[in-house]
Design goal:
There is one protein chain. It contains three helices and three strands, in the order E-H-H-E-E-H. With 58 residues, it is α+β, with helices and mostly antiparallel strands. The protein has one domain. A three-stranded antiparallel β-sheet has the order 1-3-2. Helix 1 crosses helix 2. The longest helix has 10 residues. The N and C termini lie far apart (35 Å).
């Protein structure tokens, strides 16, 4: 099974607040997430793809 991360783990890894992640979910930004009841989780593959799509090549 694929690794799932909590919003707290993702906020620490990305350097943004949990509130920012909540705002992004509310705004339907491109960062996919999984709802398990009321719990929000982020799949490792989705985070990797999202980071790749936001990488600026110089």
């Amino acid at each position: 099974m694929e690794q799932l991360y909590t919003p707290a783990q993702v906020s620490e890894a990305l350097g943004v607040s949990v509130k920012t992640l909540e705002k992004w979910r509310w705004e339907r930004r491109n960062l996919p997430y999984v709802k398990l009841g009321t719990a929000v989780r982020y799949k490792e593959s989705d985070l990797t793809a999202w980071l790749g799509a936001h990488t600026v090549d110089i």
